[in-house]
Amino acid sequence: MQSKDNKTRTIELLAPAKNLACGIAAIDHGADAVYIGAAKFGARQSAGNSVEDIAALCDYAHQFGAKVHVTVNTIIYDDEMDDMLQLVRELEKAKVDALLIQDMGLLRACKEQLKTNISLHASTQCDSRTAEKVRWLASLGFERVVLARELSVQEIADIHTAVPEVELEAFVHGALCVSYSGICYASQYCFDRSANRGACAQFCRMAFDLKDSDGKTIEHQRYLLSLKDMSQIDNLEALMRSGACAFKIEGRLKDINYVKNVVSAYNQRLNAIIAKHPDEFRRASFGRVECNFTPDLNKTFNRGYTHYFADGRQQGIFSPNTPKALGEYVGKVKEIRCDSFNVSTTASFANGDGLCFINRQTNREGRTVEALEGFRVNKAVGNRLYPYKMPQGLKAGMGLYRNQDQAFEKELAGQSAVRLLPIDMELGLTPDGYSLTVRLSGVDVPKVEAKATVRFEHQEAKKPQRDNIVRQLIKLGNTIYACEGVEINDNADRYFVPSSVLAELRRSAIESFARQSLFVEEADTLKKHGSDSTNVAAFQYINPSQYKRFPYLYNVSNRAARAFYEQQGTNVKSAFECMDTKPMHDEALIMQCRHCIRYSLGYCVVHGGKKPTWKEPLFLELGDKRRFRLEFDCKDCQMNIYAE
Q: Which residues form the Peptidase U32 collagenase domain (predicted)?
């Protein structure tokens, strides 16, 4: 987003909101926008919210110039479309700022039937990984495109260079889907739970055997598709310079303390970067955050952190030993007794801490099996810990990790931050009383002001009134405002003004100011509804080749979506979820991944790895013996997974 002066770029920190409380916490801790699901159609079945709560969140966020994006990014069935359109009407009345959409049938309906003024964003479920795809989506009326998580900083920069007029949103933190979003059908295929309908069964967090075509076991019961969590906090400045304008934290299913901690960490880092480059960047919303704890990303749920592909393909992006949160390393087990043990560490512990360790054992086949074992601390006496129940397998010398820090959670409980809008006040005289003007304070802020007057005769004071005037005007109590300065004009302080009159004047001015909009019209934004024309020739090249072989990748689940693609010159089949029967043997691509098991295990000869001794194709096998064929597409440097 380019600001009106065409010099500074507007940066948005976008936070998840499981519910109204999480949304308010996100705003209080520094988010410029939040994204939240409605009661239905939000790609997270257990994170739905009423329109009334969403409206309340809009009212709260808009005070700071922050925005509310609502996810309606599932695929939609024909018998749901009327309900979906009614929901959009209600969301528009609630004054939401943007809708995240995957279903092209909904896009068509929003344009042709509703003619909504809400900004439309192409969800990450749209599988946007190329400039051609982004350009095409923009031509349809999307003002912003949420990019695939798999892109590098350079790839994002290349897209921005090719399509500079489109807002680009990039994920920066949280859980990773191993498949490109929108084209994962593993959960639907195996468990009849559609990821594209918000019911993902977490197929990628399961344990698999990796076998070759002769049945030889290469890896046994490991979490070969389970990725670490993304953290781009150290890449923020590079991402800001890449052309992305919105930085998204994953986690609509996460609790309020996750939101508080992660948003605070990214808010503070963004502010530090902008403080160094004030002529280049500015935040998308306003207000000063006063936080009463020190954010620490290691103390929030994570499976270990990775930059993923931000710096290009790297080792160490997956967590094959466990899909659970390991937590921060806190030391080594030193000495064990029957009911307790002590730890060699500089960390401090609290009653109720959650700790874990990696238990390595040898199974009947002689293979080493690693399992994450966790336990709770009943009592902590210095470095000696008394668990509720002594964990089996704990040995001296083992590394110990903490994935639940009670002291830190206590810091986050209650009001852990407050966000205030800085204002300036100006008191002046009117012919029959006094006026008070309130303005938004700061550099590079919109010109927002409000004025109130009160009738009261001018009475010469017996003593100076400046101190009392200032003292009364800055009494802002439980409001969201903080007065930075009071200017007194016309020698108004030579007159006596009762404190009650000043209080009335202040209340009136603040109430009027609160009704003002802090939103700034951005330069170079797209027309909201794009072009009605279609570029059939361009459409043929926007998706990977697999879309031709597996046309269900277009996720067409309603008549409006089918008509949309026919208008684009493509005759597509029904979505995977709408098929009468599952695809036959070797006809179902259920995942397409940039994560490559062969590379991660050190056997990619293209990148200097060892030459494999196994016989391909390789297969992933679940405990119930269902197996899935792996295809290593070295040309496009990706891994395709097929149902057997």
A: 400-515
